[in-house]
Amino acid sequence: MSKIGNRAISWIVLLVFSLVIFCSSAFIIVHTDHDCTGADCSVCAELAQCNKTLNALGTAVAGALQLTLIICIAASLCKVIIKSHSAHTTLISLKVELLN
Questions:
Q1: Is residue 96 part of a domain?
Q2: How many domains is the chain partitioned into structurally?
Q3: Interior angle at CA 22, CA 18 and CA 28, nearest 5
Q4: For residue 92, what are the CA distances in angstroms to 14, 28, 82, 86?
Q5: CA separation for the pair 5, 10 (Å, rounded)
Q6: Would 91 be classed as within a structural domain?
Q7: Whole-number Cα distances in Å, 65 to 9, 34, 53
Q8: Can you give the pLDDT of all 100 residues of the chain as single tens digits?
Q9: What is residue 59's predicted lDDT score, i.e. its pLDDT?
């Protein structure tokens, strides 16, 4: 597999893990104060599944994903800033006539 293909797959995996962690956490936060219907409460079952998913991934994986995501965003921003500020300005690009 090519280097670009591996990079794309790693970004997809990072995105999927981040999305699972974010969505599970958001579901738990939003539905913690729901009206429980009893033993067969579907919301309680989903809360248990989200909690199980977060525990299975572990806090170390979640922290590593968050750190990786923050570093990737910071690197992308730095790249954009450096690219925008490193435009080569020469006399020709400024259309300066060198007449003596």
A1: no
A2: 1
A3: 150
A4: 44, 60, 22, 16
A5: 9
A6: no
A7: 15, 30, 15
A8: 566 677 788 788 878 877 887 888 888 888 888 888 888 888 888 888 888 877 877 666 667 777 777 888 888 888 888 877 766 777 777 777 777 6
A9: 67
Measured CA to CA in angstroms, residue 15 lies from 20, 32, 73 at distances of 9, 26, 12
Contact 17, 68 (CB under 8 A): no
Domain-located, residue 49: yes
Domain that holds residue 24: 3-85
Angstrom distance (rounded) from CA 27 to CA 62: 16
Torsion region of 88: left, alpha or beta (phi above 0 gives left; psi -120 to 50 gives alpha):
beta
Please report whether residue 92 resides in a domain.
Answer: no
